[in-house]
Amino acid sequence: MDAINKEPEALEAAFQAKVDAEQRIEPKDWMPEKYRQTLIRQMSQHAHSEVVGMLPEGNWLTRAPSLKRKAILMAKIQDEGGHGLYLYSAAETLGISRDEMFEQLHSGKAKYSTIFNYPTLSWADIGAIGWLVDGAAIVNQIALCRCSYGPYARAMIRICKEESFHQRQGYEIMMTMAQGTKEQREMAQDALNRWWWPTLMMFGPHDRESAHSGQSMKWKIKRQSNDDLRQKFIDATVPQAEFLGLRIPDDKLKWNEERGHYDFGEIDWEEFRSVVNGNGLCNRERLQARVDAHDGGRWVREAALAHAAKKEARKVEAA
Ligand code: FAQ
């Protein structure tokens, strides 16, 4: 039956049945308005995170310790920009324009990941970001490869492949430093100390506090809960830290034989809320950098539009 002739309840039931049957929802399919809005929120926040996420690493481009490290870091940062672009494009299929999404970011209405509001104080932070932040992003995004919305799931497959390279390059920096001089080992440990807890916050609040999880899991936008993904990340990362000879800054971290998982200490949720609400160490600086970049690029966008219009006019004239 044509979607137009169906009652809203029947449309919703057919939609849920499709999701339950693991069929993908595509842009032209009927979808509940709240599903569309939830995806726009999550995908645009995800895109903003990728783009703002270029800034902490960008800080070290001019100070990378060798030409090779500089070239690798440049390529990684460009990948993150590319991820933002796939995600903005995927979100546009839901009927929001890129300009609207930028406006939401620049006005402070849209969120982006808390992790990018922390400063990068030493070269070891670049290793820690690749190892931990990209590592956490992969754990979260592998689950999103099976998201019910087709364009988001497909974007995630490519993004995960690139994040996997990013994670390895970060781990390799940490390995080099952990096997280096005493000062280098101390820098690596200091970076782990500062990035560990903020990385755990990337997975969002506890399941019981998570406003959107229930509905998003039912719609198979999210396939695993915030706490399950956080645990998965910790279980995978602790042996990696041991291999580096570094200590994770959590006295409560301990393997629990019965659960088959690591137990760990409580996250400072006060700090999380404060960073979400714009009061992290770098929130203002990050947002200002994005606003300035957007304003600074205005002439390029205008010139590109003028060029396209001129080309089109010439084509019409010639015809
Ligand atoms: N930061 O009900 P929930 C990367 C907000 S990409 C800020 O649990 P949900 C690549 C949440 O938005 C990293 N806000 O929400 C890279 C919601 O607020 P709202 C980004 C957070 O959506 C690496 C409220 O709290 N990845 O790293 C955070 O079901 C290196 C309630 O929370 C993604 O965005 C947070 N950490 O679950 C780039 C992945 N956590 O909108 C450069 C896609 C929660 O009601 C360098 N997103 N909030 O005002 C997701 O998987 C989900 O959106 C979650 C949150 C899991 C983040």
TrEMBL record:
Domain of life: Bacteria
Keyword Hydrolase: no
Pfam families, per database record: PaaA_PaaC
Any one GO molecular-function label of the UniProt entry: phenylacetyl-CoA 1,2-epoxidase activity
EC number: 1.14.13.149
EC primary class: oxidoreductase
SUPFAM superfamilies for this protein: Ferritin-like
UniProt keyword list: Oxidoreductase
GO terms, biological process: phenylacetate catabolic process
The keyword Oxidoreductase belongs to this UniProt entry's keyword annotation: yes
InterPro entries: Aromatic_CoA_ox/epox, Ferritin-like, Ferritin-like_SF, PaaA, PaaA_PaaC
One GO CC term, this protein: cytosol
Entries under PANTHER family matching the protein: 1,2-PHENYLACETYL-COA EPOXIDASE, SUBUNIT A (PTHR30458:SF2), PHENYLACETIC ACID DEGRADATION PROTEIN PAA (PTHR30458)
The protein's name in its UniProt record: 1,2-phenylacetyl-CoA epoxidase subunit A
